[in-house]
Amino acid sequence: MTWSKKGFVRKIESMGTLDGPGVRTVVFFGGCPLRCSYCHNPDLWKTQPSDLTTIDELYEKISRYKTFYGTDGGVTISGGEPLSQPLFLKSFLEKCRENEIHTVLDTSGFGNAAHFDSILKLVDLVIFDLKEPNPFDYPKLTGVTKRISDQFVAKAQENNVPLWIRTVIVPGHNDTFEKMDELAVEINKIKNVEKVQLLPYHTMGNSKYTELGIEYPLEGVPGMEKEKLDELFVYLQGKLDIYK
Ligand code: SF4
Questions:
Q1: H or E element: which one contains 148?
Q2: Measuring CA to CA, which of 44, 73, 96, 142 is 20 to 30 A from 27?
Q3: Contact, 152 vs 113, CB < 8 A?
Q4: How far is the CA of 32 from the centre of ligand 1 (A)?
């Protein structure tokens, strides 16, 4: 079944090795309802008519690299927020499954919950961007409620989908051991976690805000230092069940 033949894809990057196992093609869906203060892709918040593509065109592009995927690699669907185009996402996931291409969904978990189950039945691995463990702080960072992403994670567990969990660490915002304690409590509640990663906040997307005429919420905040990030990660690992 094809749910939607057309959708918005901003760019495709081949031969990636960071967003999931093995060698991967990363497909960036356009559109995102969140407004994370550290977002380095504000140019992907809105879809553009020029991004419109069909399932067949998209599949043709990603299948060019099929021989490089091997047994581990495949396609990672990122964005933007891929869940903002649920019907197109399902059609693309189904096309990949029919052709035995491994799929990773890189998502905040925010979308229309009515589609979560049917999407997750077609996904091989989720990279879940756990933006913030505290439900009161979550909307301040993202502009949306945490409740929806909680529902997404619950559905992922119901469907036994393996998860990698990622959190961006921003100096002066969540670079504390107390926040690592909160993260650990949240992550330890989730089953099927295969990997946890802390990502350093960086300032490379700042100029996009200037170009788009949008005020940058983290103006003046420096990039996250690697040493401090490593220190926080070692501390976090010590609290996580999956590393015990
Ligand atoms: S979910 Fe991703 S694309 Fe959307 S605002 Fe947050 S960081 Fe940016």
A1: helix 147-158
A2: 142
A3: yes
A4: 6
Atom index in ligand 1 nearest the CA of residue 35 equals 5
Residue 1 reports pLDDT greater than 90 = no
Q: Is the dihedral of CA 92, 93, 94, 98 positive or negative?
A: positive
Is 92 inside a domain boundary?
yes
Beta bridge partners of 231: none
Model pTM above 0.85: yes
Give ligand 1 pocket residues (Cβ under 6 A).
Answer: 32, 34-36, 39, 41, 44, 79-81, 108
**106 C-alpha vs ligand 1 centroid, how far in Å?**
11
Specify if 15 maps to a domain.
yes
Domain that holds residue 98: 6-243
Decide if 209 is inside a domain. Answer: yes
> Is 32 among the domain residues?
yes
Task: Please write the tens of the pLDDT for every residue from 195-231.
Answer: 999 999 999 888 999 999 999 999 999 999 999 999 9
Domain count, the chain: 1
Sequence-ordered list of residues with C-beta below 8 angstroms from that of 147, at least 6 positions apart, any chain: 135
CATH number of the domain bearing residue 227: 3.20.20.70
